[in-house]
Amino acid sequence: MERQKILIVIALLFITMRILYQAFPADEATEENQFNEEGLALPQPGKSNNISVRQAMQDRRSIRGYRDEELSLYEVSELAWAAQGITNEEGYRTAPSAGATYPLELFLAVGEPGVSNLESGLFRYIPEEHSIKEKSEQNVKEEIVEAALGQNFIKEAPVAFIIGAEYNRTTDVYGDRGKRYVKMEAGHAAQNMYLMSETLGLGMVTVGAFNDEDLKDFVGMEAEPVYIIPVGRPE
């Protein structure tokens, strides 16, 4: 009888630990994240999502007002993966790409409030490693707002993603028509982010009104900018 009680207690402890693990993903650890030459590995995506694709499509809206609260590194991981994450050993990604040429580059501008256990700065997403690599320690949110013709809600979001395009990766294969394919791909990636934001209880908006050359200069990117995408917790 005593042994049976012990087994019940062990089972209850196991269930409790399982619930806590699902409720608090690994990225919420208190120790500071450390960068190395390869960058900072992001938490593996896919631990939780209970909203159906149909429900996410039904509820999706463009959100321009954000609470003064930071995002978790896990949420950033899910959003980056939704845009350009690799989904199998052959290197295919979450967004379809003409000829698997993958011309898109994804950048993250982190401000204040920003991302838990991550300093403000500018980062580039590395799909092959599911990591982010630091480009600059500077908070460039003000500069991005300037390039975006004064759209201040971009600064209020904890993170502003920037999708850029290296058109030659696709046009070298498909000629001038490849430019159309690249823009289609950027739309696929942005919609993936919209749906992922909805499942995470976040809000975002795609911004296309900006000065291309100013944005490239402020972010230090060679790719041609296609979107600015601020993300945060809706007001």
Give the rounded overall mean pLDDT.
Answer: 89
Instruction: Name the structural class.
Output: alpha+beta
Reported by name, the CATH topology is NADH Oxidase
Task: Estimate the strand proportion.
Answer: 15-25%
Question: Shape from CA axes?
Answer: globular
Q: What is the total domain count? A: 1
CATH superfamily: NADH Oxidase
The CATH architecture classification is 3-Layer(aba) Sandwich
Question: What string, H for helix and E for strand, traces the elements in order?
Answer: HEHHEEEHHEHHEHE
* CATH domain class name: Alpha Beta
* Ends distance: 54 Å
Tell me the total number of β-strands: 7
Radius of gyration (Å):
20 Å
Q: Please report the number of helical segments.
A: 8
The major β-sheet equals: 7 strands, antiparallel
Describe the structure.
- The chain is α+β, with helices and mostly antiparallel strands and 235 residues long.
- The chain has one domain (2-232): NADH Oxidase (3-Layer(aba) Sandwich), CATH 3.40.109.
- Helix content is 38%, strand content 17%.
- A seven-stranded antiparallel β-sheet has the order 1-4-3-2-5-7-6, with helices on both faces.
- α2 (53-59) packs across α7 (178-199), α3 (73-84) packs antiparallel against α7 and α4 packs antiparallel against α8 (212-219).
- The termini are far apart.
